[in-house]
Amino acid sequence: MKAGAAAGAAAAVTPRVLRHDIRRGAAMILASTMLFSVIAVVVKLLGGSIPFMEIAFFRSFFALPIVLLLALRGRATLRTRRFPGHLARACTGLGATCCMFFSATVLPLGEQQALTYGTPIFVTLLAYPFLGERPGPHRWAAVAMGFAGILIIALGPTLMGETRVPPAGIAAWVIVAGYVAAVTHGMFAASTTLLVRQLSATEGSTSIVLWQSILMTALCALALPFVWVTPSAMEWLLLLGMGLVGGIGQLLSTEAFASAQVSSLGPYTYTALLWAALFGWLIWGDVPGVAMVTGAALIVGAGLYILHREMRRRQRP
Fold it and tell me: Could you tell me the residue ranges of all domains in the chain?
């Protein structure tokens, strides 16, 4: 997961003891965001030869040792009375991961990462059916701004006459599906975040992460017989590295949110857009256009404003 669902999950982690060491928290969240961006690069490199569901399996499977270490450190347990909630959270997390991985294989990395940062927009939309929270006019304005950013990224280059060179061998409808998947990722990731909020009322954060990792690995394994492609030696190394990097990134993000308030660290996660633009330029020669930069700015602005309104709401007596 950010891969996309990981970031949303980490943001909902209930800290063990909140020391609010902003420097430590910021350093760890910046490092974890960079590692999650590296995962997106590996997914894009592997996507031409390995099915995205198989990539998702190894992302979860090879990260399990680090997640188990985190769980043992936090004295987590699998004992729970809310297994259906954990299963639903794993399903939404898997949906977010699959959307993330599929879109990464067909879209320019910068555009793909920007579109997948629509999670705060969908959290606002889904907060009422999940938590009974009614968005106010300020949040609705932020949602409209975020969706405007999504439309600009998807349609702006064509309207502005920017040149787009589709990846070789990829049909136009697949690229359209990539845009849909990237946006749909936000809906799945938002559902994951809200489910974690519900589970956190009775479950420890490390137990939630442990259940998610085990169940996501198991769900991906069910699909393996239908999509299996034997990786080459180099692809095995990339898959192993991706899983370990993802586990370390999850560990760092968990420690970050145990070190400082979630609201103070949220803006740092948007540095993923800078990493995506840099990696996309260095590896694939993708240069962000006016539409991508404008759309990304609107999406980030909407996310930050929603975060600002959330902070103000929590500060009220």
Answer: 4-315
